[in-house]
């Protein structure tokens, strides 16, 4: 039996499925992974900028880095891997490939919201009225109908690092999603001068504090609403409970280097569950999984789950 067939059989008998997703899930959508795209920004590593200390020292620099990434996320479109994973959140879809499934959760380290947007598009299936009577099968006048919503597994997507479109106050902690582009004129002007990631990472532009994003509630300086290195990820207690009962774990587009997410697959395997890794370049630790699929997840996942493609 080949590995694809063995994996499908194991998946088919799974009851509690969890997906751990990282930057590789969105790479095919044009979003550079956190450690690539040159990996440097003004001679600093991207990871060095994703800290509270970096923001305190140079909020202009950190905001330019995140605003550039926000723009790329706004431009990005979900790829076929997002579609497959999103359909797993719908019980009627998941049971095509896992008839005994009782729960499904996507734990994503990504901040781009592509998984959430993909699921929302699937859930809100509108019975759109036709534009004219000629368009209706019976010739009847079109009628207004409320959107028909498909049932979804509860809390099926957990964004443990938050969304990049959230803007959080540094004083009153007010937080709201804001997809305005540009977020403020000064950041828009900086973005307009960047030809690409490398160019953006080498140009020195100092934006005055007063011209950076401000809190709409109190007017204080705002910061990106994502979880930075050194900060506590969201939903840890809930995630621990999910991992504890999972009997199938898919690790998609992430490395075994960032804790705590890097420990989840090991914990599933330790209590008897199966682990499948999907990565362009699986690490030595990834090879310890029950199933390893090398390649872009945007092509591998649809080939393994044609019913969900």
Explained architecture:
By secondary structure, this protein is α/β, with parallel strands linked by helices. It has 2 domains: 1-29 and 79-125 and 140-164 and 233-309, Rossmann fold, CATH 3.40.50; 32-75 and 166-225, SIR2/SIRT2 'Small Domain'. Helix content is 32%, strand content 16%. It is built from 12 helices and 13 strands. The protein has helices at residues 3-12, 46-49, 52-57, 59-75, 80-88, 91-94, 114-123, 185-192, 197-200, 236-245, 261-270, 297-304, and strands spanning 16-21, 40-41, 44-45, 103-108, 124-125, 148-149, 157-159, 166-169, 175-177, 222-224, 248-252, 274-279, 291-294. Strands 7-4-1-11-12-13 form a 6-stranded parallel beta sheet, with helices on both faces. Residues 127-137 have a biased composition (Low complexity). GO terms for molecular function: histone deacetylase activity, NAD-dependent; metal ion binding; NAD+ binding. InterPro entries: DHS-like_NAD/FAD-binding_dom (IPR029035), NAD-dep_sirtuin_deacylases (IPR050134), Sirtuin (IPR003000), Sirtuin_cat_small_dom_sf (IPR026591), Ssirtuin_cat_dom (IPR026590). It is found in: Mitochondrion.
Strand order of the largest sheet: 7-4-1-11-12-13
The oligomeric state of the chains shown is single chain
Determine the CATH topology of the largest domain: Rossmann fold
Secondary-structure arrangement, i.e. CATH architecture of the largest domain: 3-Layer(aba) Sandwich
Sequence of secondary-structure elements: HEEEHHHHHEHEEEEEHHEHEHEEH
Instruction: Write out the CATH superfamily name of the largest domain.
Output: TPP-binding domain
* Low-confidence spans: 126-143
**Class based on secondary structure composition and strand pairing:** alpha/beta
Fraction of residues in H or I helices? 25-40%
């Amino acid at each position: 039996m080949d590995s694809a067939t063995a994996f499908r059989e194991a998946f088919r008998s799974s009851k509690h499925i969890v997906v751990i997703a990282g930057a590789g899930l969105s790479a095919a959508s044009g979003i550079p992974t956190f450690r690539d795209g040159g990996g440097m920004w003004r001679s600093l590593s991207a990871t060095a900028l994703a800290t509270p200390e970096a923001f305190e020292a140079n909020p202009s620099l950190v905001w330019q880095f995140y605003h550039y990434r926000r723009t790329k996320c706004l431009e990005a479109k979900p790829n076929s891997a997002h579609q497959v994973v999103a359909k797993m959140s719908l019980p009627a879809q998941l049971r095509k490939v896992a008839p005994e499934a009782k729960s499904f959760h996507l734990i994503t380290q990504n901040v781009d919201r592509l998984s959430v947007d993909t699921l929302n598009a699937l859930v809100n299936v509108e019975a759109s009225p036709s534009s004219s009577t000629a368009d209706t099968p019976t010739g009847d006048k079109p009628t207004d109908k409320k959107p028909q919503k498909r049932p979804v597994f509860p809390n099926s997507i957990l964004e443990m690092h938050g969304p990049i479109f959230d803007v959080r106050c540094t004083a009153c902690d007010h937080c709201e999603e804001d997809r305005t582009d540009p977020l403020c004129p000064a950041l828009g002007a900086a973005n307009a001068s960047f030809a690409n990631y490398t160019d953006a990472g080498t140009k020195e532009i100092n934006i005055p504090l007063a011209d950076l994003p401000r809190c709409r509630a109190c007017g204080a300086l705002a910061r990106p609403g994502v979880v930075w290195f050194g900060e506590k990820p969201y939903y840890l207690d809930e995630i621990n409970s999910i991992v504890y009962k999972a009997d199938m774990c898919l690790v998609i587009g992430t490395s075994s280097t960032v804790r705590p997410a890097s420990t989840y697959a090991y914990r599933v395997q330790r209590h008897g569950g199966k682990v499948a890794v999907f990565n362009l370049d699986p690490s030595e630790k990834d090879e310890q999984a029950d199933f390893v699929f090398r390649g872009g997840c945007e092509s591998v996942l649809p080939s393994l789950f044609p019913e969900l493609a």
